[in-house]
Every structure is written in C-alpha cells, then in structure tokens.
Amino acid sequence: MRTLSHLDRLEAESIHIIRESAAESERPVLLYSVGKDSSVLLHLARKAFHPGRLPFPLLHVDTTWKFREMISFRDRTARELGLNLLVHQNPECVAQGINPFTHGSSVHTDMWKTQGLKQALDKYGFDLAFGGARRDEERSRAKERVFSVRSAAHQWDPKRQRPELWQLYNARVAQGESVRVFPLSNWTELDVWLYIYHERIPVVPLYFAAPRPVVRRSGTLIMVDDDRMPLAPDERVTSRMVRFRTLGCYPLTGAIESTATSLPEVVAEMLVATTSERQGRLIDKDSSGSMERKKQEGYF
Amino acid sequence: MSQTVDTGTEQIEEYLRGQQNVDLLRFITCGSVDDGKSTLTGRLLYESHMIFADQLAALAGDSAVLGTQGDELDLALLVDGLAAEREQGITIDVAYRFFATDRRRFIVADAPGHEQYTRNMVTGASTADLAVILVDATKGVLTQTRRHSYVTAMLGIRHVVLAVNKLDAVDYDRSVFDGIVRDYRAFADRIGLTGITCVPTSALHGDNIVTPSPHTPWYRGPTVLTALETAELDGTAAQRRPFRLPVQLVSRPDPHFRGVCGPVIGGRVRPGDEVRVLPSDRTTRIVRVVASDGDLPEAVAGESVTVTLADELDVSRGDLLCAADSPATVADRFEATVIWMGEDYLLPGRPYRIKIGTRVVDGTVTELHHQIDVNSMARLPAGRLEFNQIGLCTVRVDREVAFDPYTDNRDTGGFILIDRTTNTTVGAGLLTAALTPARNLHWQDVDVDKATRSLRNGHRPCVVWLTGLSGAGKSAIANLLERRLHTLGAHTYLLDGDNVRHGLNRDLGFTEAGRVENIRRVAEVAALMVDAGLIVLAAFISPFRADRDMARRTVAPGEFCEVFVDTPLAVAEQRDPKGLYRKARRGDLANFTGIDSPYEAPLDPDVHLDTTRQSPEDAVEAVIDWLRVGGLLS
Ligand SMILES: Nc1nc2c(ncn2[C@@H]2O[C@H](COP(=O)(O)OP(=O)(O)O)[C@@H](O)[C@H]2O)c(=O)[nH]1
Prior knowledge:
The structure holds two protein chains of two kinds.
Chain A: H1 6-24, E1 28-31, H2 36-49, E2 58-62, H3 68-81, E3 85-89, H4 91-96, H5 100-103, H6 105-124, E4 128-130, E5 147-150, E6 178-181, H7 189-199, E7 210-217, E8 220-223, E9 238-243, E10 254-257, H8 263-271, H9 290-297
Helix pairs in contact in A: 1-2, 2-7, 7-8
Chain B: H1 9-18, E1 23-30, H2 37-47, H3 53-66, H4 83-88, E2 95-100, E3 104-110, H5 118-125, E4 130-136, H6 143-154, E5 159-165, H7 174-190, E6 196-200, H8 224-230, H9 235-240, E7 244-246, E8 249-254, E9 257-263, E10 268-269, E11 274-278, E12 282-290, E13 299-300, E14 304-309, E15 320-323, E16 329-340, E17 351-356, E18 359-372, E19 379-380, E20 390-403, H10 410-413, E21 414-418, E22 425-434, H11 450-457, E23 462-467, H12 474-487, E24 492-496, H13 497-501, H14 512-531, E25 535-539, H15 545-553, E26 560-566, H16 569-575, H17 580-586, E27 607-610, H18 616-629
Parallel strand pairs in B: 1-3, 1-4, 4-5, 5-6, 23-25, 23-26, 24-25, 26-27
Antiparallel strand pairs in B: 2-3, 7-15, 8-9, 9-14, 10-13, 11-12, 11-15, 12-14, 16-20, 16-22, 17-18, 17-21, 18-19, 18-20, 21-22
Helix pairs in contact in B: 12-18, 14-15
C-alpha cells in the first residue's frame, strides 16, 4: 500500500478537474496571468493531457502595465512549450490611454482587466475558462465552487452556485452562459510553492529577491519598471533587495524587502510571514466585502 | 503545533522534502446554530498560525463592529464569508478552510447548522473522511445532532469526533459530559455510526481543542486536533477495493498512441493487469501506465492517470474500467437514496440528466417508495420530494451504466441529478442496488441470505405472535398493527386463522391434535417468511404453551415476540363478535377454548396487552415500542 501525500492528492484532483472541464465544454481556454499560480495551472494542464498537446489555448488579458519581466517570461514560456497564446488588450483602454496614475486603480483594473476579459471571452466565444484562484486567498473565496457559472453578461450570482458532491462536477450551461473553473481551489499558497519546488516549475524571477529600483509610496514599495512612472518631487528611487509575493500591474503591486534569492528561502520566509499575499495587492485595500463585489461584477 | 521551521537553507530543504510525506485529511464540521462551530474552526486556524497579521488586523476591526466577544477577538468571524451572510450573522453555505500541522494537512468543510440546509451538509460530507459534530453542553443531544449524525452515517463517513462544547458554561462538570456521551453513543449505535471519539471542549477558551485542558483533569482522551491528526485515512482501504477507473477522455495525439485517461477510484493498476470495460463488457490488458516523467510501475486509488490497452477496443468517455475478475454491476434500474436539492420538487416520472462517474445519461425516478425524516429517521409516505428532503427511490436510466453500491465505493455509487432546462444540479443520490439488472453477467460473490434481505428492507424480520381467547381482539390489533408497520415502510405479512384454515390447513380439524398440527404448520410458514425478511404477524388463539414455545424455537432468539392479548373470558364472551360463544354454550361447537378446552395463559409474554384498559391503537404502539427497543425497526 502506498500512502499518497497531500501534494499527490491535490495534483490528482486538479488533473481530474481539468480533464472534466475539457471533456464537458466546447471551447475551453486557460486564463494565463503569468504568476506562480498560472505556472502551476499550466503545468497541471500539460500533465493532464500528456503526451498529447494542450487541447485549448492560453489567454492573457494584458493591461500594458505588467512588469516587463512578466511579458518576456510569458512569451518565452509560450515559445518553448509550443503553446497557443492569445493576448488581449482592451482597445478602448489603448485608445483612451487608461492608466493607474490618471484614472485611479479601480478604473484601471475594471477597464483593463474586468472589461478586457469579458471582451476577449465574447470575441472568441469561450464557454469555459480556467483560472488559478485559490480558496485560501481571501475569506469570500472560501465558498467559491470549483465550477462557477456566469451569466451571458459574465455575472456571478452567489445564489446560483451548484452544489459539488464527490468528484462529480456539472459544467452544463445554456447558450451564452459560461463556466469559470478553478482547479487550484483546494491549494494553499504554501502548497503552490512546495509543488513548484518538487516539480521544478519555472516562475517569473520577480518572485526572488534582487536589487530593484523602488520608491516608497503610501507605505508600500513600488518598483519603477519603466519611465512611464511619474515621480513626485520628493520621491527618490533607490535600489533595494526586494521580491514580490504576487504579480500584477507594476504600479499597483507592492514589493517586500527580502533576501530570499532561492525557492527554499522564499518558502522559509513565507512560513514565518506575518502578512498574507493579498496584502501586496493595492486593489484589495478597501473593506473585506470588496473582493466579492468585484466578483459579482465579473472581475476574475 | 505550529510549523516549526529553521531558516537555515539545509533545514528548509529538509523540511521541503519532508512535506512530501505529509498526508491530507478532509473533514466536515457540523452543529446547530450557535453551538460554536465557527469559533472552533477559527481556533484551529488561529492556533495553527494560518492566520496572517493583516487578516488578524482586519479581524480586530471586524470584531469591534460585528463581534459578540466584547473587546476580545471573535474567532468565529475568521471563518465567516459572503457579505449578505455576515449581515444575517449566519453561515449559509459550505466553505472550505485550510490548515496544517507538521503531521497532516487539513481541508475543513464548514457545513451550516441551520434547519433547512441538509443540502449543504450532504455536499460537504460527500468528500469528507471525518466529521466533527458539536453538541452544546448546556443543551445536550438535540434533533439537529441526530440529523447531522444520520447524514454522516448515510454518506459513509467512518470517523466522528463528538465535541461536547461550551463545557466552561457548565463548570467543566464531568457528569454533564458523561451524560451527553452516553446519550450520543446509544443513538449512534442505532444508526450504525462507528469510530466515535468524544472530547469535552470549550472552543471559546481553547480547552482540549489543541492543548489538553487543565479544567478537565478527569479526561484522558485526545484533543480535537490530536483526534484529527491520528484518524486513520481511507486511502489504504480504497487501494484494497477492486480496481475502478471511469474514462474521462481518450487521448490520441498520434496514430501510435491511444491513452485512456481518468482517476483511479478504487484499487490499483499495473501493466499486465486484466481489465473489463463496462458496460460493453470486453476484456483486455493494461500495457502502460503513462506519466509525464516516464511510465509508472503502478497507480493507486486517488491518482489521476493515463493507461494504454492491449487491444483496440471501443472505449470512450463514460465507460468504466474494472478489475476483470471483480467488475461493477451493469444495470439500467436501481434502488437509490436521493437527497433533493432543487427548488422545484422531485416528481416521479419527470426526466433528468444523471451523472454517474463520467457517464451522463437521461433518466427518471420511476417510483418514490418513501421519504425519510432525517430527524426521527421514520419513513413517511410521499408523492414527491421537496428541497432538502431525502427519499428512497427507484431510478431508471435510458442506457446501461456500471456502478457499485455506495457502501462499497462512494465514487462509483454516488450520482447527481441535473435539471434538463436550467442545467443546475438538483439532487444527489446513493445507489443501493440494481433492480432486475439488464444483464447481470457477473454475480457478486455474495450469498443472499436473511441478513442481506434485511439490509435491503431496512428492518430486521421477526414473528409477532398474538395469542388470546376468541374475541379477545387479536385480529383487530393485528390488522391495525400491519397498517402501522406498512406506513413505517416495513415489509409485513399477516397470518391468521382464516387465511390458513381455508387453504394450507383445510385438512385439519379442531381436535387437540388438529390444533397442534395447525400451529406447527403456521410456525413453519412464519419461519420461512422470516427468512424471506418479513415481519410476520400471527394471530391465533394458540391455547397451548408448548405450541407457542415450539413456534418461538423455529426462529432465532430475539425474532419472536409473544403478545398476550389479555381479555377476561366474561368480556370476550360478552363481545362474541362471531356468535361462537353462544354456539359453544349451546353445545353446537366442541373443543371451544375457554368453554370446554383449556387456555394456558403466557407466563412471561414479551408484550402484555390488557384490552379492557388499552385501546387497540395503544396496543399497537406497545408492540411497535418492543420492536424498536429490540432493534428490529429503526
Ligand atoms: N461559553 C462558551 N461560549 C461559546 C463557546 N464556543 C462558542 N461560544 C459562543 O457561542 C456563540 C456562537 O458561536 P459560533 O462559533 O458563532 O457558533 P456557530 O453558529 O456554531 O458557528 C458565540 O457567542 C460564541 O462566542 C464555548 O466553548 N463556550
């Protein structure tokens, strides 16, 4: 008798979910956000179909404000693994030059990400989209289903969530409706790192500490990734050893000071960490109910 | 209990490697509203340091506004969720939380205690290895406690931790704890719940949750956390079951490779194993167990795999690969327990989609045998099932499916019902047995005997033997009793003088020898019917003690209930419903019991009914009580 470890069981569950989704939908897509969760999700999806190719494309909803290292990592990954990568940038945002500085973080996020995602899903007619969200990230996510049904307008209705029993998932939807599937629902941040470590999964180097140019803005360290970042007269760019626990648009992602340059060191820091990873995301700084509102509006 | 890590790189690498041996336990917490479920879960998370400082700060803020603990942190708020629910102050859905110790990872399904939410509890329990059931020490075992335990037993959970909570509120009184434990165990025995660990706790103050409490020196058992860490996992048991793999996909990346993908949900699989593909019923061999980093020598229950087969069989999504020598059953009609979760009620005859394993078929509930009241476990007649109701049904599907009884394998015995118009999941079912299997080629190696029949019937068989003078009221009581048992869902048969003397015993007279032979035959027939699983009601004067004792010996101990329908001769003679006493007095009837033939009253009847004082309805209840106490009826 062999005892399966928790990582074995999590991996098997995720692969099962990914295969069920592919089998029960017409046009699935993997929402690839370039972060560590996306890296794990991609790795699991490739395992699920090995030795075949991924039977669905990857979609990156780009905001033009992602860290440059994320974009180069994304393109390299797609090229090396021979993946079908779709990149969508909301054309309205491009035209209006939407950015976090003049329009504020919530308009920026809503227009680029929420609206951009809806546009892309409609454009390609995807009826099922994989996301890397985990239940441990935030209180309201604890109750998210693995398969989450969205209306034709991409709305999430907490009252229409389907009960999920045993390993039986129901991905059936009416014309126009779609399903968001979260194969990593039962993973924790630590599990993700352990799995990356054991499976040697490549991740964006921004997760590891390196000297980077940063400014301190309302108590948070923001990396100056390019010259579009406006600086106040009293702001000084300094080089500090920092890393990121979560990746997004560089002006909205806080760095933490760290000396962890390797994965074991990152895990060690995390185990003694005193803040949850979402803390670095500036969009979550309002009340606890805010994540839920965003979800109802269609934010991923 | 916290994750103890040294930050030196070598130690951390060792820690990382060690994490590969940590296993996973999924459990569900259940309790009535306000029993302290959220507080207990919150404490487990808090004391295992899965709460980060910023979440704690948010909690401190929330506690001040919403909390019920004055200035202290309200741990219950940690596990609270959606905004609307928080405003209502109740948890109304299943939430999943995570925490870990050095020994084990845990996934907690937080199931609600609210009256209407059987659905959520069933959902949370379907994947749980263990249930933590809370009882408020100030209230004791409540209806909800029984319901949660019943659902736990029904869903096949093999471990229960009973947390007798709020013990601080009863001054950590041992007798309160002992009393609740006694009540609970008595009840748990009745519903067949095993593996129970009872722990005296205060979730609020942390007694016996993570660390042993100084307030309960009389308690030597494990804390809640220790019980969770040491409960034996189902994994190895699952590996001992017959091999099962529901086909999710067939992958054909190139003409030379054809992989069958799916989760192993029973047993294990190795190259060379002979497997049977159901429902088409072809056999072949496993050639490879494929993984991305090379082929594997073996895969076990709990893993998701890809295998290749020796022959080019027609295999597709929805098929079930089984061990060739112990395949699942193939059928298109089943008996199943259905838990209804739809807003519209379940109506027999209405079509639904049914998903079993990876197979989706069209089907319908053709019959609803009865509804099960989760509070009393009584079986009630029902024409439909409403939201949160549970019923025993016959299910028919339009194509054959392969399955195992739920008690053998959750993953091949559980199914969901999907509404054909809204596509929502409206019900869940547990398959109990195939009914007239379309082709049951492979008989399971099980002898059908009294025990298996009784399992199917949901009650144990027995003989209820009513004895008494003519006109005492035996037939009237037996008739009422049969009707009552019928509504409880029991399978019955009533034997009385009339239906026996007109056929089987037509050749017998009323001499003493005739009477003895009459009773002997009746007793033998009753014994056969008991073997067939029935509750047999026998209403015979049966005046002789020796004959009744003989009847008792034809069945097993505990299966015979002698009911003395005690009516004084004067009263019976006065009633004289068939005019027999008058005839006997006139001398037209010889050997009439009580007149010119003796009646030997039972010396120690199992039930003694005094018909001059008890109504027939009361008499029936007295017998029902006896059956319940004896564990013949649930
Ligand atoms: N005295 C006492 N009160 C408790 C205990 N556990 C919980 N409570 C209180 O009981 C109430 C309900 O607790 P909560 O965890 O929200 O219950 P839930 O509805 O089962 O989740 C709250 O006021 C708690 O503080 C305990 O062990 N002792």
